[in-house]
Amino acid sequence: MRLARFTEFGKKIICVGLNYKLHVKEMKNSLPTTPIVFLKPPTAYVINEGSIRIPKNCQELHHEVELGVVIGRKGSSVNENEAEDLIGGYVIALDMTARDLQSKAKSSGKPWSIAKGFDTSCPVGNFIPKEALPNANSLDIWCKVNGQLKQKGNTSDMIFTIPHLISYISQYFTLEIGDLILTGTPDGVGPVNSNDIIEIGIGDISKASFKIE
Ligand SMILES: O=C(O)/C=C/C(=O)CC(=O)C(=O)O
Ligand SMILES: [Mg+2]
C-alpha cells in the first residue's frame, strides 16, 4: 500500500456536495435527504504549492475548501460500523468549481462534469495518516485568499458524517486503495482570479498553498 502517493494516476476522486447547512443556504438549495455524489477525474489533482488553471470559458472560478478522506482498504457495500476500517488518512483539499459553468449546466439540466472536473480542479495538501487525526469528525477547516480568511468551518457540522458517506458511496462504487472522498464545503465559497494565492488548512495541523495561473 503506497498511500503517500494516492494522487497517482488512475484513482477515483468522489465528491459530496451540499453537506453543510450554511453552504446549502448560501447556494439557495434545499437540504439533501441523501448525499449528493459526483466525480472528478484523476487529472484534476494538483499537489501542494502547485498552480490552478482557470478553465476555458470560465469567468467565475470558486474556492471550496473540503476535508478529503483517503481510502486505505478496498471495500464494497460496507455498513457505517465497518466504514472506519476503510480510512487510510486525510488531506485538506479544494473542490475548485467553475461556478458560472455549473450554474449554466444546472439550469439546463446538464451534468456538472466540466465545471467540477477540469484539469487542476482538485488541489490537495499533504497526506495525513489516520492515526495522526483521531478526531476527524470535529476539525476546523479553513481557506484564505491572498491572506484574507474566506472560509472557516468545522467537520462536526456535516449533514452526513464520514462513516455515513463511506457506507453510502460504497453501495454504488467499490472503494479502492488511494481513492479520495471530498466531504463537501462549508459556507463562504467565493471567486478567485489570476495570480491569487489560496491557502487551505486543517487548524494548525496541515496547510497547503496554491497559485491561480
Ligand atoms: O447546487 C449547487 O448550486 C452547488 C453545489 C455544489 O457546488 C456542491 C459542492 O461541491 C459542495 O457543497 O461542496
Ligand atoms: Mg464541493
From TrEMBL:
GO cellular component term, pick one: mitochondrion
Reaction equations catalysed: 3-fumarylpyruvate + H2O = fumarate + pyruvate + H(+); oxaloacetate + H(+) = pyruvate + CO2; oxaloacetate = enol-oxaloacetate; acetylpyruvate + H2O = acetate + pyruvate + H(+)
Keywords, in A-Z order: Metal-binding
Pfam families: FAA_hydrolase
InterPro entries listed in its UniProt record: Fumarylacetoacetase-like_C (IPR011234), Fumarylacetoacetase_C_sf (IPR036663)
GO molecular function, one term: metal ion binding
EC number per UniProt: 3.7.1.5, 4.1.1.112, 5.3.2.2
Claim: Metal-binding is one of the keywords in the record: yes
Domain Fumarylacetoacetase-like C-terminal, residue spans: 12-208
Biological processes annotated in GO: carboxylic acid metabolic process
Similarity comment: Belongs to the FAH family.
Name of this chain's protein: Oxaloacetate tautomerase FAHD1, mitochondrial
Species the sequence originates in: Dermatophagoides farinae
Gene: FAHD1
